[in-house]
Amino acid sequence: MPQQTIQQTPTLTTVKNAIQGVDVLTPDGWIKDATVLIEDGQFVSINQASTPNGFNLVNAKGLQMLPGIIDLHGDAFERMICPRPGVNFPLPIAIADNDRNLLSAGITTFFCSITDSYEPGLRSRDSARAVIDFILGMGKQVLNCNHQIHIRHEEANTQGHQELCDWLASGRVQLLSINDHLPPLGNQQRLNRYLNSLRQRSSLSTTEIEELLNQVRERRHEGDEQVKQLVELAHTYAIPLASHDDDTPEKVALSQQHRVAIAEFPASVPLAVQSRAYGAAVLMGAPNLVRGGSHLGLMSVADAAKNDVLDCLCSDYHYPSLFHAPFKLHDLGLMSFEQAWALVSSRPAAAVGISDRKGKISPGLDADFLLISPDNPLPTAIASVYVTGQEVARYSIK
Predict the structure, then answer these.
(1) pLDDT value of position 123
(2) What is the pLDDT of residues 106-145, one digit of tens each?
């Protein structure tokens, strides 16, 4: 896959740090009691015997250094914007608050999963546009986590198609997933689940929701041709594509036809195997593992790991789970901690084509990392968070 360009605020001053006495998780395993040199926002060397002049010394004795977490799919920010149905807060407050939540969970690169739906309010096109404008505008000055734009396009949203095409062509979108949450006619279970979900983010009445769904269904067929155009644009501009909730072999086959790079939440082990067979990376939600299974009764992360069809983890709807999940995978005996941490760092970076810049502690890559206290699987283990070589968060640890 072509490597993507990470859009990030330029570093205005050169910061040279030497992190000393730290145990470092590198692509080749642990290096104990190392010195890591960082300059111009990138790792320069690891296990340096001595520190050259001009470096700020950071004593990290007794701490571990892990690559920063890369979250490909997270929408918990929606609850910062709309904590109660129909109750919205200004974006600067909501997204700035969310930024701190990301850092406190060890997330240094966040693909902000913005739903582009036919719904009014939180998941509308207007809301999507406002979030993107903020992140790419004022956000450059106030956000510390590296934010990328992940558009979750609902196939049934046929309005404003050209605007979405323009976003892809202009480089405003770094990941595109194709979703279809429109409940099929006659499927009462899907309809009830959708109604319960929409009521959590909207004050629409049941009658208003039913009228909305009927209007959307009338134009649903237009979305098929639009999706074909979006898929071609994504490939033209080297934007990774993701499928979402593939629950039949036919849907996986369509994702293969679309040349999907990431299969988000396939419903079963056989479908994950089928997705893997055409080259997609299987992405699962960390809350699924932490809670002990899918809240929808679909494939569990534990089963995916046992059957070797798990490539990446994401926060989905709960950021702290993404930090905790690698520890739990190790505790369950499903894989080594080193392998498990790759699921939240190097492997997501590879899945979206940014592994030349992100995801590992290695010379020449961006110095995005965590300093943590060992033997603590909770986010309270995090002592410091660094993004492109600069400390952006510091916490007291016990």
Answers:
(1) 93
(2) 999 999 999 999 998 899 999 999 999 999 999 999 999 9
CA distances from 203 to 71, 86, 114, 165, 208 (A): 30, 5, 20, 30, 10
Task: Name 292's Cβ contacts closer than 8 Å, sequence gap at least 6.
Answer: 300
User: What pLDDT, on a 0 to 100 scale, did the predictor assign at position 193?
Assistant: 78
C-alpha–C-alpha distance, residues 129 and 181, integer Å? 20
Higher pLDDT, 216 or 281: 281
Half-sphere exposure (CA, 13 Å, Cβ side) for 175? Answer: 33
Whole-number percent of the chain with pLDDT over 70: 96
d(Cα 242, Cα 150) in Å, to the nearest integer?
10
Q: In 219-268, which ranges are continuous DSSP H helix?
A: 222-236, 249-257
pLDDT in tens, 20-58: 999 999 999 999 999 999 999 999 999 878 888 899 999
pLDDT of residue 220: 83
* Residue at 320: amino acid letter: P
Domain ranges of the chain: 16-66+361-394
Is the pLDDT score of 8 beyond 50? no
Nearest Cα to 112, choosing from 142, 67, 143, 88? Answer: 143
Neighbouring C-beta atoms of residue 397, cutoff 10 Å: 14
CATH architecture of the domain 16-66+361-394 equals: Roll (2.30)
DSSP 331-384: HTTSS-HHHHHHTTTHHHHHHTT-TTTSSS--TTSB--EEEE-TT--SGGGEEE
